[in-house]
Write a structure and sequence with these properties.
By secondary structure, the chain is mainly α. It has 8 helices and 3 strands. The structure holds zinc ion (2 copies).
Length: about 270
């Protein structure tokens, strides 16, 4: 059982006016109008504890009953209260004081209830504020996520564009390479025809003899070793078909004739 005297900070011998003023002290002490910074420490539980203590101790009959229960529960306390004899004077003045107490306690009670209401209001405001802050943080987080996603999207787009450009450049390079190869082939054909003309080669055999053979031979894999028509050796199964004279050559001859063609070009 709660010690109502301790709750109100009173001795067991406290008079009724002590109880009233102790209660009044608490009411003022917890008034959020007077102590705006204190409301957060105040709980319903505190108020209720004090108010309950006050309600019991301020009504004579209830206080007597409470004291009796208290003494029954704590035999030691009986000795402390034994000194306090009934006070006839107080009893006589009781009716008058009771009226005054009722008036004041009613006023205090109203005040306490108002204080209580204000505390509740403040606490609700505080909770709302916390909720608002939480929402704000959540919103900021969502916005940040969105911005990041957008940034990522931009980055992906740029990466795709970059790859596309690299691909285009590679295709262009391939195309240029093919063009250069075609030009070299055409030059080689012109040179070969000029050589045949210069040497008066008309027959197939004459043309073969005067052929420098092409760097653009068609490579073919033979089933067995073949005889190179230029050097007469059997060197391998890979034959190089010269597009000018239409003969099968070995790799070595193709290389040798390519070197001679290079020398001829250099001599011009
Ligand atoms: Zn040839
Ligand atoms: Zn050969």
């Amino acid at each position: 059982m709660a010690d109502y005297y301790a709750v109100l900070g009173l001795q067991r011998t406290a008079s009724k006016s002590d109880i009233i003023s102790a209660f009044r002290e608490f009411v003022y002490a917890y008034d959020p109008n007077l102590h705006p910074r204190r409301f957060s420490e105040v709980t319903d539980e505190n108020f209720q504890k004090i108010y309950r203590a006050y309600r019991v101790l301020s009504v004579d009959s209830q206080r007597r009953q409470y004291d009796a229960t208290l003494n029954a529960n704590a035999p030691q306390a009986r000795a402390d209260n034994a000194n306090e004899a009934p006070q006839p004077l107080r009893r006589r003045r009781g009716n008058f004081l009771d009226v005054i107490y009722e008036i004041f306690s009613g006023a205090y009670e109203a005040r306490l209830r108002e204080a209580w209401r204000l505390v509740k209001e403040k606490q609700a405001q505080l909770a709302q504020l916390a909720e608002d802050q939480r929402r704000e943080v959540a919103l900021a987080y969502v916005n940040e996520r969105k911005a990041k996603e957008k940034e990522e999207e931009e980055r992906r787009k740029l990466e795709i564009e970059r790859r596309e450009q690299v691909k285009l450049a590679a295709e262009q390079a391939k195309l240029n390479e093919a063009k250069a190869k075609e030009a070299a082939r055409e030059l080689e054909i012109r040179e070969q025809h000029a050589r045949w003309e210069k040497m008066g080669a008309n027959t197939d055999q004459e043309k073969f003899s005067a052929c420098l053979h092409s760097s653009f031979c068609t490579k073919t894999r033979k089933g067995k070793k073949f005889k190179c028509e230029a050097c007469g050796a059997r060197r391998g199964i890979i034959a190089f078909l010269c597009p000018h004279c239409g003969r099968d050559l070995c790799q070595l001859c193709v290389t040798t004739f390519a070197q001679q063609r290079a020398r001829d070009r250099g001599g011009k």
